[in-house]
Automatic annotation (TrEMBL):
It is found in: Cell membrane. InterPro entries: LipidA_mod_glycosyltrf_83. Keywords: Cell membrane, Glycosyltransferase, Membrane, Transferase, Transmembrane, Transmembrane helix. The chain crosses the membrane at residues 79-100, 112-129, 135-153, 165-184, 190-207, 214-234, 267-285, 292-312, 318-336. GO terms for cellular component: plasma membrane. This is Dolichyl-phosphate-mannose-protein mannosyltransferase.
Length: 509
């Protein structure tokens, strides 16, 4: 069996490598702010997810619902929360393998080796490992996009062979297309690219009316299912455009885009460029290969280019992590360049591919060794010996209470927390405004902050530990800290990135 199918024998250690890179340090870092939002929404119940979350969260509530179902089955601890992304990222290797095999057949190459190269590149890709460890929708979105691509390539093979869309593959494509739309507010960018790629791969003379109806009906069904999420996006977009916290930076843009395509750094780029040319040579051998190559290029480039144009003309939406699914079609093309060659070109392609994989693994190891995005555990270890009986933490803005509370739970630390003005989300607060686009997180005017500082409940707290995330956005001029300092003094301060923690002890009379 090994002599007849060496690719399957090699697949085992490659998958093991992908699993190891995704599990390494996956559960050690505390939840950062965005992850805490996911955990918070998933823990609030179905009514909250579908009635309250759409009022303040731009992303559709589908991922949070999926996460809630996962936590009901496996618990809501940090390991359980992160394991959904890890599982989705590992499962992504299956549609990548299937897509690579389809691409190899369409380009007239050996599908076994193209499929194996695709899995190797996807297993080693640094950003895929990063997204696997996030309690966010990105790993599931990557899986859905990869599944849509694999099903689309298989559907194209079926049409070329029989003139009919394979029903199972086409159904999988439509389901994955709908999932891409429901998993993220940028889902329409991925759906548009998939629709154009479907036209390139499937539209041809002689396709029967019945198959055209199936083709158009599948896309119409996905669009119809997306309609509620589209209405949520339309409702949220004006606030987000007006008050977004994001800024679009063009510095090192080419390197950031290369990284999301699975090419981390200069050496990797020098290996990838010839592989792209070799992939083009492989694609032009057959008509099906030309279709597949053009479709994959669309899928890799169009969402990225559209998000950059939106960032320039409308509002900043380009973030590397939201664009990581585009790495799937890029890596498929690189896999074809690596393993789809004939004759002496193999002697060039395989070493280049292995050099790229080596650079990916190095970048993945470096990523696993980076400090946490927000080191709440370190902040709490600093705070723990300074807490006295009766102390309370005030979180302003209110969202800071989310990651703090999860980190405190993980460390077994008990400290009463008050989110200012209310726990997330804060709706209909008089005089409040939205500095960073979320309707659930507000800044308060100076009189409101002074009233909170003067409340008997606040004055009774021996030491108020004021937690601010990004005070330059929500507490410009340190208004809340100054209001509390009227009858208190600073007894300690911790700063680390966006985390700003100040101890304000009541002056003894």
């Amino acid at each position: 069996m090994i002599r007849r199918r060496p690719d399957l024998f090699l697949l085992i250690p490659i998958v093991a490598l992908g699993v190891a890179l995704r599990l390494w340090h996956a559960f050690s870092a505390p939840l950062w702010l965005d992850e805490a939002y996911s955990a918070y929404a998933a823990g609030k119940g179905w009514a909250f997810l579908w009635q309250i979350v759409p009022r303040y969260e731009t992303h559709p509530p589908f991922y949070y619902s999926l996460l809630r179902g996962w936590t009901l089955a496996f618990g809501d601890g940090r390991v359980a929360l992160r394991s959904l992304g890890v599982a989705a990222s590992i499962l992504t290797l299956l549609p990548v393998w299937l897509a690579g095999r389809s691409l190899g057949r369409m380009a007239g190459s050996d599908p076994r080796w193209v499929g194996l190269a695709a899995v190797l590149l996807a297993a080693s890709a640094p950003l895929f490992g990063d997204m696997a460890q996030q309690v966010r929708p990105y790993a599931v979105l990557i899986f859905s996009f990869a599944t849509a691509i694999a099903a689309l390539l298989r559907s194209a093979e079926g049409v070329a062979a029989t003139g009919r869309l394979p029903r199972v593959a086409w159904g999988a494509y439509v389901a994955a297309l709908a999932l891409c739309l429901w998993l993220h507010n940028l889902g329409p960018l991925y759906a548009a690219a998939l629709g154009l790629a479907a036209l390139v791969l499937i539209a041809r003379a002689g396709l029967s009316r019945r198959e055209w109806l199936l083709f158009l009906g599948g896309h119409a069904l996905a669009g119809l299912l997306y309609l509620p999420a589209f209405l949520i996006l339309l409702d949220q977009a004006p606030t987000w455009i007006k008050s977004t916290w994001l800024t679009f930076r063009t510095g090192a843009l080419e390197w950031r885009v290369a990284a999301l395509w699975g090419v981390p750094g200069r050496v990797a780029l020098w290996a990838a460029l010839p592989l792209v040319l070799l992939a083009l040579l492989a694609c032009v051998r057959t008509g099906a290969g030309r279709r597949a190559g053009f479709a994959l290029a669309l899928l890799a480039v169009l969402p990225v280019a559209t998000s950059i144009l939106l960032s320039v003309w409308v509002t900043p939406v380009f973030i590397i992590r939201t664009m990581t699914p585009c790495g799937i079609p890029a890596l498929l093309l690189l896999a074809l360049g690596m393993a789809g060659q004939r004759g002496w070109l193999r002697l060039l392609a395989v070493p280049l591919g292995l050099l790229l994989v080596h650079q990916q693994i190095q970048a993945s190891i470096a990523a696993r060794q980076r400090p946490p995005m927000q080191d709440w555990a370190h902040a709490l270890r600093w705070l723990a010996p300074r807490i006295r009986p009766g102390d309370m933490l005030y979180a302003y803005p209110n969202e800071g209470a989310l990651p703090f509370s999860y980190a405190a739970r993980d460390l077994g630390l008990t400290l009463p927390v008050r989110a200012v003005p209310t726990p997330v989300p804060s709706f209909d607060v008089p005089g409040a405004w939205y500095p960073t686009g979320s309707r659930g997180v507000v800044s308060l005017p100076k009189p409101a902050l002074e009233r909170i500082a003067a409340e008997p409940a606040t004055r009774a707290v021996p030491t108020v530990w004021l937690l601010r995330l990004g005070p330059w956005a929500y507490d410009k001029g340190d208004l809340f800290a100054r209001a509390l300092l009227r009858d208190r003094r600073i007894v300690g301060r911790y700063r680390n990135g966006a985390i700003d923690l100040v101890g304000l002890r009541r002056a003894e009379r």
